[in-house]
From TrEMBL:
GO terms for biological process: negative regulation of signal transduction. Keywords: Signal transduction inhibitor. The keyword Secreted does not apply. This is RGS18 protein. It comes from Tachuris rubrigastra.
Amino acid sequence: MESPLLLFPQLNISASKDKSYCKVMKSMIKEEPHKASKPGAKQKRNRLSLLLQKPEFHESDHLGKPGNLAKTASVSPEEAVKWGESFDKLLSEKAGLDAFTKFLKTEFSEENIEFWMACEDYKKCKTAHELLPKAKTIFETFIQKDAPKEVNLDFHTKEVTSQNIHQPLITTFDTAQSTVYRLMEQDSYPRFLRSDPYLNLLKGRNPSRPTLRRRSRSFTVNDFQGVRPDFTVW
């Protein structure tokens, strides 16, 4: 008896076509989930990227924002007025020094006031034994080349200070401190007196609460009068 495939060759053709069709379908089924997963992964990466770009994920950015500027202890307008009398008067009061320091942070120049305060603390040393470690720390932090908080000093002042650091005295940083003091007095201090946080203190406003801005336009009931609802979206 002859084989059914020989008697009906069209069955063999049909069977091979079915097998090929099944292979193609299986490969397509395997590829589709794979393709679908790619956009999903890409969307996840995009969502993560957007989250990382949000301000709350960058705490350092908040330092320069006016809203975080002068959370100073309660200061009366009369006290704030005294800060405008002289730079020395501003620095002599704790609240004034605090407000000025926070202002310099918004200008990314807080190293100047930090150096000035470090020098003030240095001059309080009572023994020669205390001078050397403090002098070395101040020099390495604020004065030497590429220091993490290097202040702007002229070459002569920096050179003299570098030579005296090996046998430090109470007066070792006097010239450098005076230079930075004048820089702040002539440059940063006038801008501080014109800044919004200081002007708000003069007016008796709470500096910890940023001034509310009026919206350009608010919707009212009248805006919706005569407007016919569009139900096409349903």
